[in-house]
Amino acid sequence: MKVTGKQKICDALCRLAAARPAEKVPISNLIEEAGVNRSTFYYHFDNPRSVLDYMIKTFCQKYLQLLSMPSGQTARALDSDSQMQLEQNVCTYVFSVQHYIRFFLSEHNYLTFKQAFLTYFRDYCKSHRVVQIFSDGSVCPLKQGIVYDYFLRILASQLLGILEFWAERDFSEGPEDFIQLFNALHNSTISLQG
Length: 194
Hints:
With about 190 residues, the chain is mostly helical. It has helices at about 5-15, 25-35, 40-45, 50-65, 80-95, 100-105, 110-125, 145-170, 175-185, and strands at about 130-135, 140, 190-194. The protein has a domain at about 60-194. The chain has a three-stranded antiparallel beta sheet with strand order 2-1-3, with no helix packed on it. A hairpin with a 5-residue loop joins strand 1 and strand 2 (about 140). It is elongated, with a radius of gyration of 19 Å. Pfam families: TetR_N. This is TetR/AcrR family transcriptional regulator.
């Protein structure tokens, strides 16, 4: 697979900003490390922070897209094959970008990543209905307000916490472990419906 100039710049930022904030990486160092010219850098990005923002946005959108429920379904209502496929897709993606996740969770990038993740999660939820699930399996949309806001923050924190813990354990969990984690998350009475 051919690595694009944009990808080279992102990878270079991971290497150069591992021990310092992205904003402190000189563009000249980033260009040299990426092996691209200045015009390639400026074609894609304005500065090192815009590289970080792009990387975070790309990750969050893909991660959340992979977690999306089929239209009209909740996670609790997914059949086991669909749930297994969803979890396998998430695991495959997370394994493929684990070096970025470690980078996002590093001391210098964590707050930026967390704030962006919460924002992207809130935007993601706008394309879903947040519903309360009753014991008989029926659902009722949760009205926007304090409970809605708290639930979204808690759910986003859980999804972020899974990534943090997974990274702490060197991404050693496989799809089966991930399914158990998501089962625990989705056994609450409030869920997202696609």
